[in-house]
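Progress against Task 2.4 (sequence-to-structure conversion) is shown through the following example record, which the project officer requested during the mid-term review.
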Amino acid sequence: MFRRSDAFVRRWWDEGGGPSGRALSALLAPAEGTFRLAVGWRNRYWDTHEPFTVPGVRVVSVGNLTVGGSGKTPFSAWLVRRLAQRGIAVAVLARGYGSDEIELHRRFNPGVDVIVNTDRVAAAREAARRGMGVAVLDDGFQHRRLARDLDIVLVAAEDRLPGRMLPRGPYREPPAGLARADHVVVTRRTALERDARMLCLRLRTHAPSAGVGLLRFVPEGWRTLGGAPAPTPTEGVLALASVARPEIFRKTLAGILEAPVELAAYPDHHDYTQADAVRILARAAGRVVVTTRKDAVKLARLAVEAERFRVLDERLVWEWGEDAFTHRIDTLVTSSGTGR
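Structure tokens generated for the chain above:
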């Protein structure tokens, strides 16, 4: 059940992985160099070529520099909800990698269109055809083929910056790429607020013309796999996660529960099977299994003992920079004249 290779990669990226990690780093250094060159070439290409513009719809991209763990999906959902509450016809554009993220968007905002297409330009055109005023591009920072009216980049305070690039590290491009961003938002779950604020200041050197903000994902309560309120676990739990940074999920639980927390980690976007569910419950050995919202949408489709599971609910709390960010969003919407 526990994917040791995936756990090793994350430990190697974060902490070096000991002697075997150092050997692997040396072995993959040429691959990282090749990837870095390819990213640089692609960015130079788009620096000199016009992206595709889709008339009739404003495109807002939410992305990051790493392969995951910054909170793009819940932040995108928060942004979509804010726009919808203002009466804006808004859609989410998703590439379709990981059905969990698509289902999460539909659960977060049931009345909002989620357009799934690996061709982001085609997805934006579909949003315009449906009469949407704004299209929120989930995980779009590196997708430069589609023009956007606002580029928002999330940076997790728990990530090392600067860091190594793929495959030697989690970065898809170096911090210099933040110069393209209109707004940079630092997110945190377990990092200290003072460290996150220091990161905000450091990021200004990479994105001097961008707005900068800080927000935290705060544990808010407990739910069942189906989304109903549930009581707080009172004894030891098994933390189940198939997210980019499962150890952060474990630390979050350990910080709010007065009970031991064991981690069962699967690769990011893992599609659970019935056999997985049986093994998970066996490993829990009568304990409550606490999982993430992203995992819950997949587990809920299985015939599991739902009463054995709890889902940790979170809310997004701005700690700094909310007014500047919302002003930028409101100005974009007002200037576009979008609405229902």
